[in-house]
Amino acid sequence: MDINDKIESFPYCMDNINSVFRHLIPDEKDKVYNESTCSEYTRGTTIYREGQRINGFYCIQSGIIKIFKTGFDGKEQIIRFAKKGDIIAFRSVLSAELACTTSEVIEDSILCYIPGDTLFYLIKNNGNFSLDLLKLVCKELEEANSYITDIAQKTVRERLAEIILHLHDTFGVNNENILNISLTREELANIVGTATESVIRLLSEFKTDKLIELSGRKIKTLNIQALKKTANIYS
Amino acid sequence: MDINDKIESFPYCMDNINSVFRHLIPDEKDKVYNESTCSEYTRGTTIYREGQRINGFYCIQSGIIKIFKTGFDGKEQIIRFAKKGDIIAFRSVLSAELACTTSEVIEDSILCYIPGDTLFYLIKNNGNFSLDLLKLVCKELEEANSYITDIAQKTVRERLAEIILHLHDTFGVNNENILNISLTREELANIVGTATESVIRLLSEFKTDKLIELSGRKIKTLNIQALKKTANIYS
DNA sequence: CGTGTGATTGACGCCTGTCAACGTCTGTGG
DNA sequence: CCACAGACGTTGACAGGCGTCAATCACACG
Predict the structure, then answer these.
(1) Fewest Cβ atoms nearer than 10 Å: which of A38, A55, A80, B2?
(2) Which residues in chain A are closer than 8 Å to B128, comparing Cβ atoms?
(3) pTM for this structure?
(4) Which chain A residues are within 8 Å of B79, Cβ to Cβ?
(5) pLDDT tens-digit readout, B90-106
């Protein structure tokens, strides 16, 4: 994927059938297109930081971004990941507040920056876009509420199994059943909300129980049903 | 407050300066007004339940509602409270999904029911309303994210102190510094995400430490600064 | 006065966070 | 090419926070 694709075709992130931009009329698409700027970002780059003022939002053309908050003692809590087609930073733009999360590139990415004014223009002029955006935020809200319930009621073991399943659903696996996302043990701990050592021990137990196989940061899922059982998920 | 107030005046929940309805034009206000229905609900009444289909949302004229999810073992996790001027159930309406929370009356309430079609009409026709609604959902999302971080990183003790402060800010106190909301120990536990017994023991410790005074379900705050310190809040 | 719900207290033990030491791997610079 | 630094992963020991179970108390209500 070359960055010049923006010039050749309307970026994927703005054009696919599931995109929040799917209900724009041609003129609006042109406007978004003309006012957006795409750039490459390499792993480890910070897109924006907590407390920073943000004047526009980003649409993800490719790559993976992690979005986290910093707790009072400096520990990261990963809130969500964003991948191809997702948008980030729009919350701060809408609320006209300082960013309350930090976002960092996990896997080399191409992001399209869209100014806040464009966002406001679309909301005020296209009801279908507003509705789609509302649905998107509501979906995030529902996921956050579910996670609150899990983290408050489930054990670390259950949550870790659940997170592996969630990563499985969100990013999929390659032809060897290996998760298409690579995270450090610390990052896994920062999703689950536990200590790095606990993640290491539990992953090792999961391996013993034939739920997964491990090879460095690669996680291969062996038994989805058993993972669901471990996570206490019945659906 | 008599329920017939609706007839006498535009309901508070739709008319105050902070309401999401504040940017409606007169015609739209009339429409909302004509299509809404207000009713009284007594403590303990369930407004809607998880898994139920919802065709409209509610605007709270008076009283307090608790909104919770049920964990896999049946334990409640309280997600938030709603009070005068707040709206509930709009998420399910917008997403056209079954309710994923249950809401129950904590304190006798008057709710105004507004059909989903009215909501969609407003979103599609009034950009300022859409924007206000988006801001509202974003605010909820930000609060949910903060709570995820807290619950994942803080101890039960810290969270309980934080919840008391949060109730203090949200519902205020009477002239004796007693919180304007009355919750059972179990409900407190279901916010914090812990066992009822733990809440009892910690409240008792807070009392010993002169942070609060207790009298049944009444909680009197004695030292906000010390509570903040206990909660590890520095702001 | 019996019944039921909620509050309290105590005992007990396990899950899990913390600390410390060590192993592994990668990239860098001499 | 090797040595070293630094980041990351692993393992063990240990304690304490907190969940669970059980018994008792307090209070309201029919």
Answers:
(1) B2
(2) 124
(3) 0.94
(4) 145, 148-149
(5) 999 999 999 999 999 99
